[in-house]
Design a protein that fits this description.
The complex is a heterodimer of chains A (111) and B (114).
Chain A lengths: L3 E4 L2 E5 L4 E7 L6 E6 L5 E7 L5 E4 L2 E6 L4 E6 L8 E8 L6 E3 L3 E6 L1
Parallel strand pairs in A: 2-11
Antiparallel strand pairs in A: 1-3, 3-8, 4-5, 4-9, 6-7, 7-8, 9-10, 9-11
Chain B lengths: L4 E3 L2 E4 L5 E6 L6 E7 L5 E8 L2 E5 L7 E4 L6 E5 L8 E8 L7 E3 L3 E5 L1
Parallel strand pairs in B: 2-11
Antiparallel strand pairs in B: 1-3, 3-8, 4-5, 4-9, 5-6, 7-8, 9-10, 9-11
Classes of the chains: A mainly beta (111), B mainly beta (114).
Amino acid sequence: ELKVEQNPLFLSMQEGKNYTIYCNYSTTSDRLYWYRQDPGKSLESLFVLLSNGAVKQEGRLMASLDTKARLSTLHITAAVHDLSATYFCAVEGSGTYKYIFGTGTRLKVLA
Amino acid sequence: EPEVTQTPSHQVTQMGQEVILRCVPISNHLYFYWYRQILGQKVEFLVSFYNNEISEKSEIFDDQFSVERPDGSNFTLKIRSTKLEDSAMYFCASPKGAANYGYTFGSGTRLTVV
C-alpha cells in the first residue's frame, strides 16, 4: 500500500530565508504532484513531476523528483509572506490514476 | 485554466439526512474523482469514475456513498444517511489534459453534519 509522508508538518520561517520540504513515498512511482492550499480554499496545482530527475521551478519555488530514493523536495528560496499556505505532495500509484496525498506542510512566513 | 465547478459551496445537514454534492468537471474528460478533506487533515481519495462507471474506490467509500453522472455533464456524490464524521470538504477533480498532467480540483463543498 502506497504511503506518502511529508516533513516537516509545520514550518515557521523568516522572510528572506531558504528552506526545503520533503516528501517520501513507499512504493514505486514516477508521477508526483505538488499542490498549494490556502485556508478554506481548494488545491492549486504547482508542479507536475513525471520522471526521475525532473526539476521544475516557478518563482521562489523549485521542485525535484528522485524516483530511486522515492523522494521529492520543494525548495523555497528567499521566502516572502505570500508563500504562507499548506503544501501537499501527491503521488500517483502504479497502475492507478488516483493520488495519495502527503500529510501536508503548513508554512508560515514571518515578516 | 479551465475550471471545475462545485455546488453548493457550503451545506449544513442533520445527521441521517441525504445530501447530494454536485460537480461540473472540465468537459471532454472521461475520468473524474472525488476526494475529501476533514478539517486540518490530509486529502483522501474517495472514488474515481471512468466512462460512467466507478473504476476505483477507497475503504471510505462504503455503501452510503454513490456517484452518478446523471446528465452527461454534472457529476454527483450522494451520501445517503449522513454521519457526524462525514463533516469535511469534498473536492471533485478532473484531469487538466492528458491523464498524467495532473488534476484541476474544484472549489469544494464544505459539508457540516449536525
